[in-house]
UniProtKB/TrEMBL annotation:
GTP binds at residues 107-114, 190-194, 254-257. The lineage of its organism: Bacteria, Bacillati, Actinomycetota, Thermoleophilia, Solirubrobacterales. This is Signal recognition particle receptor FtsY. CDD domains: FtsY. Signal peptide: none annotated. The gene is ftsY. It comes from Paraconexibacter algicola. GO terms for biological process: SRP-dependent cotranslational protein targeting to membrane. GO terms for cellular component: cytoplasm; plasma membrane.
Amino acid sequence: FFKRLRENMSKTRQALGAEIQATLFETLDEETWERLEEALIMADVGATTTAKVVAQLEAEAESGAVEGGEALTNRLIELLASIARPKDEDAGRIDLRHSPTVIMAVGVNGTGKTTTIGKLSYHLQKELGKSVVLGAADTFRAAATEQLQGWAKRSGCEIVIGPEGSDPGSVAFEAVKKGREMGADIVIIDTAGRLHNQDHLMDELSKIRRVIQKQMPDAPHETLITVDATTGQNGLRQAQLFSQAVPVDGVVLTKLDGTAKGGIALAISAELGLPVKLIGIGETLEDLRPFDADDFAKALLG
Ligand code: GDP
């Protein structure tokens, strides 16, 4: 798995890892820290986080606490991992102990929401042997429903759909109802992501949430937002916006294979205080992974 992570994140690895090796293995002077800062910013680690990390490493190098290129690189990996790690261990996980556990997937169109639901349902249903019901509550786009139906077929899970243009809340309601009736383990609700009609979209999401709660007062148990890693700081703003409409529990960071800016995972944890729970590192069914801060930092630099 780690090998695959490193391979699929090769763009960030080449850009950031190579620059850091070149920098930290040379003489340490003012320019070293500037180059390090620049490399982290280029990788989308974010200005505040970058400044903090560089200041810490510089102080440790000056005091002689860490010496030599390799030790400095390892210390940098540790510092980055500590930023990406959720404060509380449970916060980084998806708790599947409810019956059913209701997961609401939100995010802007094109960020990889449907693909993520497909990968996740396949993993849960086919690999973990759980029973999954999908709810196609993006009723605005017929293509979204069709795409989800394709994933349901591949995963062998149930799907609840409504006619095009029907009320998204009622589809979500029916999906949770079906999940309860069937005694399913997990219900995953797909939602719309049309940002050009922002106010309407946010109303729709909070309404879907309320309707789900009519079936199960403590649901959704997990609201996940998909953020496209290639959109950089824009993704951060999207996550903030969605968090204002519905309480978001975690981030699925997609398309990490397609960017040299994988540092965005750190900016999300540090600046939004939201745990990255899953990462998408490609388009196949196996390319969804739990996020592990240590592996991630190592894959970036090690
Ligand atoms: P949605 O509109 O948010 O539901 O987005 P889709 O799931 O339809 O995904 C949009 C595009 O991104 C599709 O072409 C997907 O194959 C692609 N995609 C999704 N996740 C990943 C990923 O982790 N890596 C790569 N390379 N492509 C992805």
